[in-house]
Amino acid sequence: MPSDSSDSISSTSDSGLSTSVANLSEDSKIPKPPGEPGRPGRGGYTLYDALNWSPKAYVRFKKFIHHLIEEHLGTAKCASSQSPVLLKCVHDKVVDAFPDLDNYSGFWLVNDMIMMWLKYTSGRARQKEVGMATGKSRSKKTCEL
Asked: Which are the contacts of 72, defined by CB distance < 8 A and separation ≥ 6?
């Protein structure tokens, strides 16, 4: 579970020295669940369930990533259409803000959250474009008598 930057997770080795989680080997980190995030009925998983964090911690993490994405990336484009430099910038800022993410092999949850949010926002942008192109708008429905 992520913690505030003032909190730190560490483990004590046999020698009594404290070692940072940054020194954990990839094998001892939390692996990515099988399947695709956001598709639990199709062999995937939900991030919320996979992480098993408190609701408050999960919402804080999610809002932080969403804010960074809105600030740095084009939300009308999916992750594969984004600038790799800007994706790395968002990724690095999230990892800096949540040091406990180093417990997750390959930072899979950061990548999954970015991918899922961009998939959602780009889909909404496409729906809006199609609606505008066909002259349809949910907010301007009128009733003819």
From this structure: 86, 89, 90
